[in-house]
């Protein structure tokens, strides 16, 4: 039996993932061109940039100019990432972005220490702080995220019980702040997920919180992203983060093994072929993927942009018959 | 519910797929090195070469020398491909290969015409002929294959009912010849399969022939190969063709869109992480994949050879804890 959803919501993270990761430099106008191309595909949320210190992420030094440059299309949400209040205030200052708050916990203490230089306990306090900031600034909090939900290069395998417990922590933190989360993102931060661990973790979460909407944030470092998405779809997951052309990393460049997010157009193909509605025009999305490849100047990992969808063949065989 | 098998049998087709596809020239001694490396991985069947006219497939002109050169390891079957009696006799003449007969039908008349210049009716007669040849030469017939079982660039979508019917034809042909097929391979010749069509087709076949062993021959042109394999595993499929490093095509070379077979080491990773035994030493297989990449001289598509398996991280985190 399958709980496959009738439709899915895909958050396009390619611009942010790609521009902060690619060696570049990528011209500001090219970043704007890609966002504008994505705006015409039917995608309903595009994460455009991140507001982080330019000294850490030089590719995001022009975040404000990128946001100023793209054209908002009605029906599309344009979001951004920030890691602290300074970044959040920069995002708000653009006056052009859809600002939604989020909180985030991490299953691996060691990863948290290396990545954000804080302990798990300190991180809870940080989330309380940011929840206060959101309240003070009148920003609605929409999402809670769990990093390293499927495994960690430092902590190893993650017990699904711990994922369930930490979802409880996210819900308690939001209750304390009088906030209702719309959904929780399970992030496969270091690409440990496989279809069987998707089943274990999502299954455990579902047993405890049957009505909670879940989102999967998948990386393709080990080639499992689409198989993982399928396993998620079979369990009724109807929300995914994805990156056009698989932006965010390239196994064939010097970034050894650091592949990007699941490729948006490949995910759209997977869903549409299963009769799951995405709202996305696949051919237009493939054009955007080819543009992304042209902009970064090297091959990107997605398959449908080279392999092609089945629709042109279907049209031809229909005419033949 | 899942019918996932406890173990799977993987037929390694990388040497044949790769050497007939790569532009080369690839040295005979390199072909031999790769086969010898694969022999140490725990794989139990390696398809080594194809016996086809050198004018059609220059990369296989040295098939006899390759077969003469590799070292047979006990417990491993070394097979080859042929398309007619001339090829079969060449394979037998080596005196070193495991010779098993197979018959093959195709769901698409148009593909058959373009690929083998015969009609579906002529093809039935050809299979009867080759069955007589096998009988005359004392060769046991083991496998029946269905090409284009999931769709065709010329015929479009394939109705699962037609797959079920054509399996009936394969079984009738073999009965006529007093032959019992061990299994039937459903070949996704033009990479039309998706997890949902795997479910439809395999489901339809299972309903009619619940005890028939099935093998999946998957291509990764549209990035679906591992998701398709997972869908197959969930339905109890326990036999797969695969190619080390995804040999057989490279989406990043000039062979636009013609990706190879499902990548063996990625498939092994998928299975082992789900507790499905493959008998393969993943780290040794990754070494063979890296050798394949070195031999062809350009990046090959598999992910685990760059992303790495999880075992080293597990060992490290275990030591840390």
Automatic annotation (TrEMBL), chains A, B:
Pfam families named in the record: HMGL-like
Annotated PROSITE patterns: PYR_CT
Family: Belongs to the HMG-CoA lyase family.
CDD domains: DRE_TIM_HMGL
Superkingdom of source: Bacteria
InterPro entries xrefs: Aldolase_TIM, HMGL, PYR_CT
Keyword field: Lyase, Metal-binding
Domain Pyruvate carboxyltransferase intervals: 8-286
Transmembrane intervals: none
GO molecular function: hydroxymethylglutaryl-CoA lyase activity; metal ion binding
A Gene Ontology biological process term: ketone body biosynthetic process
Coiled-coil blocks: none
Protein name: Pyruvate carboxyltransferase domain-containing protein
